[in-house]
Please model this.
Amino acid sequence: MSTLSSSGSQFRSALAAERPLQIAGAINAYAALLAQRAGFRALYLSGAGVANHSYGIPDIGDTTLADVLIDVRRITARVTLPLLVDIDTGWEDPTTTVREIATAGAAAVHLEDQVPAKKCGHLPGKQIVPVEEMIARVRAAVAGKPSADFVVMARTDAAAVEGLPAAIARAQAYIAAGADMIFAEALHTLDDYRTFTAALALSSSNGVSAPVLANLTEFGKTPLFTLDELRSAGLAMVLYPLSASRAAAAASLEVYSALRRDGTQRAVVGKMQTRTELYDVLGYQPPK
Model:
């Protein structure tokens, strides 16, 4: 089995082993190592994470495929867990995008039905493309799959723009176009999710829904549901895209502020990872 196909198989195996599958956001290779150590079976590279943390800009569609590939390669070079990658709207050519992301070692991608000048899925004022345009994106992305195991996930932001029934209809159309899984963005209640997953199951030929992902980003439109709650609503995956990076950013600001205020790090050194702990995560034995 090739590396490209085995990455997708690994993602699917993780999904089979854990329901809902917890997918941890990792903004860089070191964060990925920490998530792996914590026991996660799958990782996520957020488009917002690349924009915010690698480039210091908001997530409004200004990053490119080349920008994302840098972080994909760094993560997959150090961590063996399957990686789901946010490819926004697929950029100019979703077929090429999927091929390059897969070649960089990722196991899965998701692309969305927003207009190219996209917004965070939990902000107001989103605009989505006609369903036919997103179907074309999905088909182009599927054409770039290196193997049947590689995962193309279609994200719909339609619930906030057109309502839940329209979001369900779009998801059904995206599955018919070849999407392997569905990312249902910014739903508000467990009943919304329950309705969404049940509708997809009823519309399938074998009565089995395409796996659906819930995005539990903090400070967004979706409450921070528990795994048991999401499982009861039929969710197959739950995503925590930037939880650790938000905590790290707050801690970093606290340390910087203490250094400026106190002229020493004494008050905050107890909150820091030690050198020994760092080397342990890296698997490094320094010379004695």
User: Anything to note?
Assistant: The chain is about 45% helix and 10% strand. The CA atoms of residues 95 and 144 lie 4 Å apart.
